[in-house]
Design a protein that fits this description.
Layout (H helix, E strand, L loop, with lengths): L29 H15 L2 H20 L11 H62 L4 H25 L16
Length: 184
């Protein structure tokens, strides 16, 4: 029997490659199962679930203890114990799976927080160094107050020098003045 070139004998599988594990080509999605486990864990961990379970167990015991015609689980309530055991057998691993997934998320979040903190610290140190260099640069810059004080010191020095010159030199007389009519 010959197969056409475009089709293969096993519904699209290539004979040169081994089959993937799983029954009939179905694959297992661990994230989907993990989300399901988290949904169950969130449901089992609520007060609403506990109240509903308490009401169901109370009704179960009441009907089986007092309704003689409806007794499907006689005392010691073996069927109820089996239901609790089954619930516990499935709930514990599902809750552990949900906790493990939460731990993985917390670990990833902690790593992200550490990375952000490291970047923030590096940025802060960089800004501190830049601020320090700006302060050092501004320490050498002359401000208006510095200029005003320097001008005041020069003016005071000129006044002192003028007073000393006045003390050393006698006051000009009429003979010392030039003849061109300009005051000396």
């Amino acid at each position: 029997m010959k197969f056409p070139a475009s089709s293969s004998p096993r519904d699209g599988d290539e004979l040169s490659q081994p089959r993937r594990p799983g029954a009939f080509g179905r694959t297992y999605d661990p994230d989907a199962f993990g989300r399901f486990a988290e949904a169950i864990a969130r449901t089992l961990g609520t007060g609403r679930f506990l109240v509903i379970q308490t009401i169901i167990v109370g009704a179960w015991i009441t009907l089986n203890a007092f309704a003689w015609q409806l007794r499907w689980d006689k005392y010691p309530f073996i069927l109820l114990n089996l239901a609790f055991s089954t619930q516990a057998a499935y709930a514990a691993p599902l809750i552990l799976l949900a906790q493990n997934r939460q731990d993985d998320r917390d670990r990833a979040q902690s790593q992200d927080d550490r990375d952000v903190n490291a970047r923030t610290q590096a940025d802060t140190e960089y800004l501190a160094r830049e601020l320090s260099s700006v302060r050092l640069t501004l320490a050498d810059v002359v401000t208006a107050d510095d200029l005003r004080q320097a001008v005041d010191r020069v003016g005071q020095a000129l006044e002192d020098l003028n007073e000393r010159l006045d003390e050393l030199l006698p006051a000009p007389t009429a003979e010392d003045r030039p003849d061109d009519g300009t005051p000396a």
